[in-house]
Amino acid sequence: MAKTVLHKANTRGVANHGWLKSFHTFSFAGYYNPERIQFGALRVLNDDTVSGGMGFGEHPHDNMEIISIPLEGDLEHKDSMGNTAVIRKGDIQVMSAGTGIYHSEYNKNKGEQVKFLQIWVFPNKRNVTPRYDQITLNEADRKNKLQQILSPNEADEGVWIHQDAWFHMGNFDKDVAASYSVRKPGNGVYVFVLKGQFMVNGIDLDQRDGLGLSDLEQFDLQALTGDTEILLMEIPMK
């Protein structure tokens, strides 16, 4: 019997710093909920909006796989590995913090906001050499189907991380359905609805709702509205 955990959008932690509004699916910074520390190896799922010209000053990370998925606007990144880059919708960015990195993230434009997801996944190897990568995906490849955007394998589609994890995104028209098969036995899948409404494994989800599924091999999803967007994060549960 599949296990499910439902996190409705309005139950997330909220931090409003004026220049930053962040919704936390899992405990983060000033938001602590002992029932919501992580889902398997998925430790952080932050839904961030940053005002024009503002951002996060240089700060450290170590031993974490950090994935950024821009949803709107231009996010400028600088890090201690010498990388300077701008990411925007359609891109995906990954950092293996490993033995330690410093980085900063700023909204490149003064006149518009930036929206992005910041995701942390525990690695399966500690103290790796820090690494940065970003790619631009063809968003047409997720029209009415699931497009792989992340995996454990450097040769696969999308970016790769030090973990047996697979991420997919899809944009679906109303009533279009798809199924997902778990890639590695024992893994779970955390589903996050970016836009529209879906039925996932028989459960109705609204925009920004999250659903954790485990102890299952496969599940179905269906768009209940048009102009939808969904993110699936398969991760180890142990």
Protein described:
0% of the residues lie in helices and 54% in strands. It is mainly β and 238 residues long. The protein is globular. The two termini are 18 Å apart. The model has no long low-confidence stretch (mean pLDDT 97).
In short:
With 238 residues, the chain is mainly β.
The largest sheet, given as strand count, sense and whether it forms a barrel, is: 7 strands, mixed
Distance between the termini: 18 Å
Question: How many strands?
Answer: 22
Cα Rg? 17 Å
Biggest sheet, spatial arrangement of strands: 1-20-17-22-15-13-14
Question: Mean of residue pLDDT?
Answer: 97
- The DSSP helix count reads 0
CATH class term of the largest domain: Mainly Beta
CATH H level of the largest domain: which superfamily? Jelly Rolls
Give, in order, the helices and strands: EEEEEEEEEEEEEEEEEEEEEE
Query: Which blocks of ≥5 consecutive residues have pLDDT under 50?
Result: none
In terms of DSSP E residues, the strand content is: over 45%
* CATH fold category name of the largest domain: Jelly Rolls
Shape: globular
* Name of the CATH architecture of the largest domain: Sandwich
Q: Please give the share of residues in helix.
A: under 10%
When the domains are counted, the total is 2
- From the helix content, strand content and strand pairing, which structural class follows? mainly beta
